[in-house]
Amino acid sequence: xxxxxxxxxxxxxxxxxxxxxxxxxxxxxxxxxxxxxxxxxxxxxxxxxxxxxxxxxxxxxxxxxxxxxxxxxxxxxxxxxxxxxxxxxxxxxxxxxxxxxxxxxxxxxxxxxxxxxxxxxxxxxxxxxxxxxxxxxxxxxxxxxxxxxxxxxxxxxxxxxxxxxxxxxxxxxxxxxxxxxxxxxxxxxxxxxxxxxxxxxxxxxxxxxxxxxxxxxxxxxxxxxxxxxxxxxxxxxxxxxxxxxxxxxxxxxxxxxxxxxxxxxxxxxxxxxxxxxxxxxxxxxxxxxxxxxxxxxxxxxxxxxxxxxxxxxxxxxxxxxxxxxxxxxxxxxxx
Length: 335
Prior knowledge:
Layout: H1 2-28, H2 34-38, H3 40-45, H4 50-60, H5 67-82, H6 96-131, H7 136-150, H8 153-167, H9 187-228, H10 231-238, H11 243-259, H12 263-272, H13 275-280, H14 286-295, H15 299-327
């Protein structure tokens, strides 16, 4: 196991290097860069000219888009990365690592709660749908699954805001706290602030859960149906075991084995934020900050953010492989 982990980590270094090359090249070759976007109005009004724009680009280190310029810029960024320096964000005017560390926790809180609710709701419904195949329950779950898979985030979020915020007025639709309220630093004030934040997060979490459980329910249903048709399940039933024991003691564990592979994508999603959801609800999580930075060509932040996600993905994939071998003893970790 130890040798396998070391080997995977060694391979991951080359994977991350490849990812960094692709991301850096794509970001640098975008039609507009940070300087073009930032000074577009001044250029249009004649306050500055193209020579000024070119000088600004040289100051930011993004002036030369030739192959040589891209190569020099990439190795400069890579050298800083090796020293633990992700660079300074153009847009947020502070270090990339600080922006990520300061803003990823609200995204993490939303994602953790949404993920827990997703598994609590989706897996039982998927198993129930499979054990009652072609029943009214199965059709209802299937319809609910298709709705969750098909609806775009921004469209469903707009409907939720319209109903629960605009029409009913039950929940706020933007931000984390009410701008008109102020909170003291004592325990009562902080608890009131915490309650305000929770009230604001109900709709974003609700949207995230509804749109994510569809795929997991469908996945669970398909896996359960496959397991229920296996020979050992028929043998267990032939021995006279109750249906509950057959399903939850024998079938359920093997149903969960393929779900372990989803763990690889959970870790980056927990820390990476939800760009569209955070944008719609005006939450300054790491996903929204990354979206705004990408729109404005903030190369240091885009690079730091995507490498952060790449590292989390590598770690998640490794943990997923290890967990797979633990859940299913038949799987042996290769040397």
